[in-house]
Design a protein that fits this description.
With about 250 residues, the chain is α/β, with parallel strands linked by helices. The chain contains ten helices and six strands; from the N terminus they run E-H-E-H-E-H-H-E-H-H-E-H-H-H-E-H.
Amino acid sequence: MMMIDGTQAISLKNMPTNAPKEDRDKVTNKAAVKANIEKLTELQAKMYAQNEYSLLLVFQAMDAAGKDGMIRSVTSGLNPQGTQVYSFKLPSTEELDHDYLWRTHKAVPERGRVGIFNRSYYEDVLVVRVHNLIKDRQLPDALIDENIWQNRFNDIKAFEAYMARNGQVTLKFFLNVSKDEQKKRILSRIDDPAKNWKFSAADIKERKYWDEYQAAYEDAINHTASETSPWYIIPADNKWYARQLVSS
C-alpha cells in the first residue's frame, strides 16, 4: 500500500497490483481483517459519542476491482445507525441541472458518522473525461476549454480542504487491479451462475478504454492528493490482502 499526499507524483504502471508473496496467506489476512473490524467498531462508537468529526471513505477503481466486496467486508462490524453508504451511478436530470459536486456534497456524513462512497465526484474527471461526456453534463460551451480538467481538480481539492476545515476526515482508496485479473473476474461472472447478476456488457466495452482510464486515474490522483485528503493505492489482485490493508 502506498499513501499519496501530493508531495510527489506517481505512475500507476509502477504501482503493484498484487500482494507480496509472503503476505498472500488468506487465513492470516482474514484474521487481521476480523481484528481490525473489532477495533473499528470500538472507535466508531467513540466517534459517534463525541460527535465532533466525521469520516468519509471514498472508493474508486476499475470495473471488477472489488469495491462492493471491500465495502461489505470492511464495514461489516460498523453500527448501521452511524454509517451511510452511497453508490453513485449515472446522474439524474435533476443532478445534471446542478453543479457536479452537488449530489455528492449533500451525501457527506454528519459529525459522528461514517460515510462511504462507492464511486464519487471523481467520476466527473474519470468516465466523463474518458468518454468526452462533458457537454452531456449541461455546461455552456463557453465554459468548456482546455483547462476544464485542471479546473475540476482545483475544485475537488478545494472542496476536500473545505470539508477538512469543517471536521471531516477523508480517506480515498484506489483499488489497483491488473488488466489480467480484471479479465478473470469478468469471465467468472459469466461462468459462475451465482455471479451472473454482476455481469454487464458494459464491463467488456469499458475494457477497451483501459489505458485511457489508467491515465485519467493517474492524473486525478496526482492533482488531488493532499496531506489532509490523501489517496491510498491498494494492490487489489488479492482480495483478502486488499481488505486487510484498507481495514488497517
